[in-house]
Amino acid sequence: MRSLILSLLLLLAALPASATQIAVRTGTCPLGGGPVKIYDEVSASTVGGMDSDLATYTAGGQFRAYAIATCPDNLFSLYGKDMGVRFDEAVARELRAELARARAELSDLDDPPVWERYGIAARMYRVLGKDPLFIAQVYVEASWTARDEAVGVFRGVKGPPGIVGLLRQGEAELAGDLDPAKRRTLLFNLARLAERGGYPALRDRYIDEFARSGPLDAEEQAALDRFRRMTTEIEPRYQDLAIAELREGLRREGLDRDDKIRATYLLADLLRRRGHDEEALGLYSLVAAEPGAPPDLRELALFLARQLAGDDPVLPAGDGDAGSR
């Protein structure tokens, strides 16, 4: 059997540059009137698979890194496709006030990271009257950009079952006789996979062992610091904001059935990723039992519910702290 170490390194091999193609055009900022760059996705692939919270991955970069257009003079941000929005002066005053509050919280006024620009967009959309489920999706995509920064792309990882299979294979390899350099490579890649899968205890176990594996060079230390910050600080911040919006949206009457099913599933998965297993299990079970749910969501909900219930743990009992997850 081919070593998982070799397999993972092959997954990280050069990806086709043409897989994700993006066009750029110049528009007019609806708040302030200055020029703004707008990016449009021309083509993409799905070679990087999908995560349980419905994040998809393409080769050659993720379009979500470009989807938010930000006006350079004032940082007003929306999805590029919405930059043609028009509003009256009363709404403009509300937008300016909320934008000022958002700007005061940025880490870098000159060049805010993409997740913060998503955060600005979410606040602008609230002023523009978008519903909570729409705003929740903006925050979810912000969390995906933080995960991208930590993890990158694994080519050929086809969804949660594929991630679990690789984690199990990797755990078996860790129990074998590996030289220190290969073990270190394997630990970091397994931490990345566990992050993709939404298994924080397992992720932390792998990354902590990587940190203890010996002196780290400057590049390794930078990767470790970035990984920890993205996965334990930035991504959870936007997941929690999305959870609050999903709860609000699901409380509203007259919600479309398909929207309700998707929101219920997404709330379950975010809660699982944030460690709220009991509530997540109940919501997954609702989706799995819903005859009108899309088959792919029902299958994912059942797959993840069985993990939380202990019927099909990610790792056998005793193999690490997250064996029952």
Explain what this protein looks like in three dimensions.
It is a single chain. This protein is mostly helical. The chain folds into 2 domains: about 20-130, no CATH class; about 160-310, Alpha Horseshoe (Serine Threonine Protein Phosphatase 5, Tetratricopeptide repeat), CATH 1.25.40. It has 11 helices and 4 strands, in the order H-E-E-E-E-H-H-H-H-H-H-H-H-H-H. Strand 1 (about 20-30) and strand 2 (about 35-45) form a beta hairpin. Mean pLDDT is about 90; it is low at about 10-20.
The strand line-up of the biggest sheet is 1-2
Average pLDDT score: 90
SSE order: HEEEEHHHHHHHHHH
Radius of gyration: 21 Å
Q: Compute the separation of the termini in Å.
A: 26 Å
Residue share in β-strands: 5-15%
CATH architecture classification name of the largest domain: Alpha Horseshoe
What structural keywords apply?
about 325 residues; mainly alpha; Serine Threonine Protein Phosphatase 5, Tetratricopeptide repeat; 2 domains; two-stranded antiparallel ribbon; two-stranded antiparallel sheet; 11 helices; 4 strands; about 5% strand
Write a short abstract of this structure.
This protein has 325 residues and is mainly α.
Annotate the secondary structure layout.
Blueprint: H1 4-11, E1 21-28, E2 35-43, E3 68-70, E4 77-79, H2 89-103, H3 114-127, H4 132-151, H5 159-174, H6 180-197, H7 200-211, H8 218-251, H9 257-273, H10 277-288, H11 295-308
Antiparallel strand pairs: 1-2, 3-4
